[in-house]
Design a protein that fits this description.
The chain is an alpha/beta fold. It has three domains: 2-10 and 200-290, Cobalt-precorrin-4 Transmethylase, domain 1; 13-104, Rossmann fold; 108-194, 4-hydroxy-3-methylbut-2-enyl diphosphate reductase, catalytic domain (Cobalt-precorrin-4 Transmethylase, domain 1, 3-Layer(aba) Sandwich). Helices cover 43% and strands 18% of the residues. It is built from eleven helices and twelve strands. The protein has helices spanning 13-28, 44-52, 62-70, 87-95, 106-118, 134-140, 175-188, 200-215, 230-243, 254-259, 279-290; strands at 2-5, 34-37, 55-58, 77-80, 100-102, 124-128, 146-149, 164-169, 191-194, 220-224, 248-251, 268-273. The strands form three sheets. The protein has a four-stranded parallel sheet, sandwiched between helices. Helix 3 (62-70) packs parallel to helix 4 (87-95) and helix 8 (200-215) packs parallel to helix 9. The radius of gyration is 21 Å and the shape is flat. The N and C termini lie close together (6 Å). Bound molecules: iron/sulfur cluster (SF4). Iron/sulfur cluster (SF4) binds at residues 12-15, 82, 105, 107-108, 171, 199, 201-202, 275.
Length: 293
């Protein structure tokens, strides 16, 4: 079978950094309890690497993290997720002088600073993104008066009429979503302070995926990633929007691929992957498909 992998694949810089930090801490402190507040990244296999290294992950939201921190042991090491953490959690850590290591991606750390420095300079703060994603909930906790906007609630932008508005973005939103919001704001708002920050790592992947999908007709397209990964879902969505083809599937690993009946009948497969998907999973899927005669 002909298999084409969209490059780059494997971890992006932010995910790589977070995982390296966790493993480095484990190697330096083999006997200490280490706990990560939330999944360090949005990929089950990457998080399994942590559990294989005896690093605990606390699932849930801020309330779960704060409850956990109330009883944290004195010599326990806390790691904060690559996707960021809320102001409430940061305050709890600093008020109680709890030692922690921050695995936040530097790109998000800079967005956090920009929000912190500018949120008071507008009547309304708009954040373009998924309201349920931890990156969104963490970043908007550093300001106030936020509206989280996406394609589903553009009508809410009517509230911005004649107002000064700050415009912030989740790192993995599409340019299309950002432009839809900006267009509405141009019509309504008095002034827009545009702080758009979309990370280039997922953008490179979906541009290449969409270009390849338009250039050549593949029998099947796989997006390899977790269904909790924003940029895996974005790859899927952008492929559909751009190519209008319904031959694209989100798979988390080789087992998902094997479950698809059409796979063995296919002659050509295109594979793209999320920034939190280990390259080993992509290689395993690719090798399996290449061996199908
Ligand atoms: S996709 Fe970009 S913002 Fe997200 S973790 Fe990777 S480098 Fe950071």
């Amino acid at each position: 079978m002909f298999v084409n992998i969209i490059k780059p694949y494997g971890f992006c810089g932010g995910v790589n950094r977070a995982l390296k930090l966790a493993i480095l801490l484990r190697n330096k402190r083999p006997d200490r309890k280490i706990t990560c507040l939330g999944p360090i990244v949005h990929n089950e296999d990457a998080n399994k690497l942590l559990s294989d290294n005896k690093i605990n992950i606390i699932d849930g939201n801020d309330d779960n993290f704060i409850n956990y921190l109330k009883n944290v042991k004195k010599d326990e090491i806390i790691i904060l997720s690559a996707h960021g953490h809320s102001k409430k959690v940061e305050k709890m850590l600093s008020d109680n002088k709890i030692k922690f290591y921050d695995a936040i991606c530097p790109f998000l750390r800079d967005t956090k600073k920009i929000i912190d420095n500018n949120y008071k300079k507008a009547d309304i703060n708009i954040f373009v993104g998924n309201p349920l994603h931890v990156e969104t909930t963490s970043l908007i906790s550093y300001g106030d008066n936020f509206m989280v906007i996406n394609e589903d609630n553009l009508y809410d932008l009517g509230k911005c009429e004649n107002k000064t508005v700050n415009l912030f973005t989740q790192s993995t939103v599409s340019n299309l979503s950002y432009l839809m919001v900006k267009e509405q704001l141009v019509l309504n708002a008095k002034k827009i302070n545009d702080f758009r920050r979309i990370c280039g790592e997922p953008v490179r992947r979906f541009n290449k995926l969409c270009n390849e999908g338009l250039k050549r007709m593949y029998d099947i397209v796989f997006i390899v990633g977790s269904n909790t990964s924003s940029n895996a879902k974005l790859l899927l969505k952008m492929y559909y929007i751009t190519t209008k083809q319904d031959n694209c599937y989100l798979v988390s690993d080789i087992n998902d691929v094997k479950k698809l009946l059409d796979v063995k009948k296919s002659k050509s497969v295109l594979i793209a992957s999320a920034t939190s998907t280990p390259s080993t999973i992509v290689d395993e899927i690719s090798n399996y498909l290449k061996d199908i005669k």
